[in-house]
Write a structure and sequence with these properties.
Largest interface: A-B, 65 and 65 residues
Radius of gyration of chain A: 21 Å
Largest sheet of chain A: 9 strands, mixed
Cofactor (chains A, B): pyridoxal 5'-phosphate
Oligomer: homodimer
Strand content of chain A: 25-35%
CATH topology of the largest domain in chain A: D-amino Acid Aminotransferase, Chain A, domain 2
Shape of chain A: globular
CATH superfamily of the largest domain in chain A: D-amino Acid Aminotransferase, subunit A, domain 2
InterPro entries (chains A, B): Aminotrans_IV, Aminotrans_IV_CS, Aminotransferase-like, B_amino_transII, BCAT-like_C, BCAT-like_N, BCAT_family
Family (chains A, B): Belongs to the class-IV pyridoxal-phosphate-dependent aminotransferase family.
Number of domains of chain A: 2
Number of strands of chain A: 19
Distance between the termini of chain A: 21 Å
GO molecular function (chains A, B): branched-chain-amino-acid transaminase activity
Bound molecules: pyridoxal-5'-phosphate
Structural class of chain A: alpha+beta
Pfam families (chains A, B): Aminotran_4 (PF01063)
CATH class of the largest domain in chain A: Alpha Beta
Helix content of chain A: 10-25%
Amino acid sequence: MADQTIKINLSESKKQKPQSDQLGFGKIFTDHMFMMDYIEGKGWHDPRIVPFQPLSLDPAAIIFHYGQTVFEGLKAYVTKAGEVHLFRPEKNMQRLNRSSDRLCMPQLDEEFALEALKQLIIIDKDWIPSAPGTSLYIRPFIIATEPYLGVTASKHYQFLIILSPVGSYYKEGIHPVKILVENEYVRAVTGGTGTAKTAGNYAASLKAQEVAEEKGYSQVLWLDGIEKKYIEEVGSMNVFFKINGEIVTPALNGSILEGVTRNSIIQLLKHWNLPVVERKISMDEIYQAYKNGQLEEAFGTGTAAIISPIGEFIWHGEELVINNGKTGELSKKLYDTLTGIQYGTEPDPFGWVVKVQ
Amino acid sequence: MADQTIKINLSESKKQKPQSDQLGFGKIFTDHMFMMDYIEGKGWHDPRIVPFQPLSLDPAAIIFHYGQTVFEGLKAYVTKAGEVHLFRPEKNMQRLNRSSDRLCMPQLDEEFALEALKQLIIIDKDWIPSAPGTSLYIRPFIIATEPYLGVTASKHYQFLIILSPVGSYYKEGIHPVKILVENEYVRAVTGGTGTAKTAGNYAASLKAQEVAEEKGYSQVLWLDGIEKKYIEEVGSMNVFFKINGEIVTPALNGSILEGVTRNSIIQLLKHWNLPVVERKISMDEIYQAYKNGQLEEAFGTGTAAIISPIGEFIWHGEELVINNGKTGELSKKLYDTLTGIQYGTEPDPFGWVVKVQ
Ligand SMILES: Cc1ncc(COP(=O)(O)O)c(C=O)c1O
Ligand SMILES: Cc1ncc(COP(=O)(O)O)c(C=O)c1O
């Protein structure tokens, strides 16, 4: 598979590229996309880069009815010197395969998928925006395409990669958000699909998100589905707390998505000789730490924002204001270091950056 | 909305209709389908019946990434006299709207949706198979079509109805199946999307189903996601038990799908003056009843099979054989009565049948 050649069919007309201040997130797509098909028995075949175009699918395709699909999200960054950086992309390909396993979907050759991704990026290189904080968001995904209404794993799939130039997450600089602690809706539960990056988890999250926004909060803090006591994630990010000098994040418990950013932060903190632990954390504990004046910082972590400082939680009607609603020192340092590594302005002690050339 | 006219564009070429013994389930589709679009601000518009054809969707459409979609499943039956019957279709349209609400999707005019369904069936009437046990499976569904990678409710949707002639669920007569009690994977949890008919629930169920099949069982019995103790559903059906003369089914608890068949069975049993209760039922209780010789029958209920008798459970390695692995009397009577009402060979005391004309 790894030496299969990718057919390339370039677009005849190029779309106009947006101004860097009009980018937003995930609305604009580049001129090309990668596609590859899978049929049971034959395996993955016909890898190709084609003009960005609509998909034509049977209305009975399993994706529409039973949501058999997995996806990934990562970014390409252009450096001042004009080099293109990916950040730990092999991690995303590994996670894609883990997600596929949970969803009864076929495995990809990770190296080949990464190679396909690089070729696509090279073709659409001019689409990578260069203004500070901007990047090219990369969305690899696999969908079940067999037209069949039986509730069973599809025998046909399509693997695609699409690219979207995205604006800076923080146009006015990194700033904290207000978070509603969610006591009713559940994102995922042990034995469910929370560890997989699959559509249903996000569909399940929309309602809580909608309610939170109506109340003036930007995201929800997800508690475990069993006791509604232990903290899992924030919005679609992992979450960290700094309590009395120690940094804690919920342990991977079978319903939390293992974030690449989360993993990188844990490594960085250890590298800095800061105490970091992965363990169960209850909302009660956070509340106690807050009351004792020991809740120093809280932040979400993920590819989109990298670090999203939390300025306030609302829990059973009570407001827990953290660090006077300001971005904490550690949050800022992590943000600067990680984005610095990604954009090539900081050293990369772990060899996380993969250059596209 | 209800008086909006449906544009009709008939197919120029008709597909060949299958022999009734080659029908299977959900693989063959009729000549036409119904479509209607939604845009925020404009509402539902452009209802139309068109030739069955592929959908053309942007690869960034929300359905592919975040699974925002709901669906229904019901059947049309042709009677000996050539009349076309639907079974409580208004229940499906109501449930579709309830599902949409959970998924932050727009409501449909239920009457109009039913009218559209009827018009489509009339056009493809010749596709309804007439051999015993065969029917026309109807799949209404709504998908989020806006091309946007933000995790948020779509502003564009498509509502579709497709039709599939299906074979008899029981080619060799109604017969019991073996069921694995699932102790690891979870279908749905309180606060999640279990009460909605939405793709992610089915995606989550595939793995357990695959494992069960490898072990020689046809479906799994789903326990609650919190204590893994209480019975919820079987495969994608509701479940009933007859214990010492009393019929019990799990109460609707916030993670169980409210089946139309389930509701109809409860009404029928009451009509027959048989004791029927909806309550929490633990697997321990079923095991005790089995040990005491009081577990008389068990069966799944749903539109596809109507009644699916359970001949055996396997739980922690122990086989619980029910009624000697044979179809119980009550299961058979319910099956005969419900299918009799549907095919018009039995009286319809509740006015459940809706004629299409
Ligand atoms: C549910 C969820 N949790 C956490 C994350 C963070 O993962 P990563 O750091 O790999 O972006 C994501 C993805 O971005 C996510 O969708
Ligand atoms: C998860 C699930 N439970 C139960 C049922 C039974 O519902 P109904 O009787 O309306 O077909 C279905 C659908 O068929 C289902 O998908």
